[in-house]
Design a protein that fits this description.
single chain, mainly alpha, 3 helices
């Protein structure tokens, strides 16, 4: 039994005991867990779409850990590539500014 199921079972027990406040709290916690799981899955899905690196399964239990490692490596490689391109662009910009400064001296 997972955490959400145990909160639902507890809410049912509270209902049987005639304790509506605790029942409402247990249902609220169960719903928040479900919402949190859905948000986490959506974040992962969006990250996968952003980097075009892998498909996310609907359930965590279905995800192959090797595939996650491969995906992390691909994302890391993409990020390193982007950082390298940015550093190269900054170096070119600095070199261009240096050449412009030299050109200004000889005008």
């Amino acid at each position: 039994m997972n955490i959400t199921e145990s909160h639902i079972a507890q809410a049912i027990q509270y209902a049987k005991e005639g304790n509506p406040n605790d029942m409402q709290d247990s249902i609220g916690v169960a719903l928040m867990n479900k919402i949190g799981d859905a948000v986490d899955l959506k974040k992962i899905s969006m990250a996968g779409d952003l980097f075009d690196s892998y498909d996310i399964e609907e359930e965590y239990e279905d995800v192959d850990e090797g595939a996650i490692g491969d995906a992390v490596a691909r994302v890391g490689s993409s990020v390193r590539g982007a950082l390298d391109r940015r550093a190269e662009a900054q170096k070119k910009k600095k070199d261009l500014e240096h050449v412009r400064n030299i050109a200004r001296k000889y005008r």
